[in-house]
Amino acid sequence: MRCPFCKENEDKVIDSRSSEGGRIIRRRRECLACNRRFTTYEKIAEGFKLTVVKRDRSRVPYDREKLISGLLKACYKRPVSADAIQDLADKVEEEIFRRFDKEVSSIFIGESAMRHLRQIDKVAYIRFASVYMDFKDAGELFEEFRQMMEEGEKAATEDEEKSDEPNSKQPKLF
């Protein structure tokens, strides 16, 4: 495999993992010339014919790069690593391939991406949602933001309540 940094052909595989039920193999490699690491993905191309049904009912071939491109735009200048974006795309694809064989709706893909992105970075989630959900005005965007904030406050309150509960595993000091 050619190193993306120094363009040499000599490398070694450090780690290999399969995902999507063995449809894709992720390999971490180290260049023997410059000692930098990079990731490659191997997938079967000919049996992979998933079609995306868009909102206007048109059909286009599924393209992982289109999903990653949207995620990269949402995460622009955010503290989200490229590996985290790849992992998020892996999770979305895993959900797709677990549930669909030939056709998947763009709505399912967008909602799955938003659900995972929300757990990683709230600002990136709002950016992605603002494009995906096609808000008609600032009020709709604000309402989505408000709901997200309320859910975050509710989760924080639940975490505080759990920490206040006596834990039978910890010894009582007083």
TrEMBL record:
Zinc finger (unnamed) boundaries: 3-34
ATP-cone domain segment(s): 50-140
Keywords: ATP-binding, DNA-binding, Metal-binding, Nucleotide-binding, Repressor, Transcription, Transcription regulation, Zinc, Zinc-finger
A molecular function GO annotation: ATP binding
CC cofactor: Zn(2+)
The keyword Ribonucleoprotein appears for this protein: no
Keyword Hydrolase listed: no
PROSITE patterns documented for this protein: ATP_CONE (PS51161)
Span list, region Disordered: 150-174
Pfam families found in the cross-reference section: ATP-cone (PF03477), Zn_ribbon_NrdR (PF22811)
PANTHER family according to UniProt: TRANSCRIPTIONAL REPRESSOR NRDR (PTHR30455)
Reported function: Negatively regulates transcription of bacterial ribonucleotide reductase nrd genes and operons by binding to NrdR-boxes.
Family the UniProt entry places it in: Belongs to the NrdR family.
Protein name: Transcriptional repressor NrdR
Organism in which the protein naturally occurs: Anaerohalosphaera lusitana
Organism classification: Bacteria, Pseudomonadati, Planctomycetota, Phycisphaerae, Sedimentisphaerales
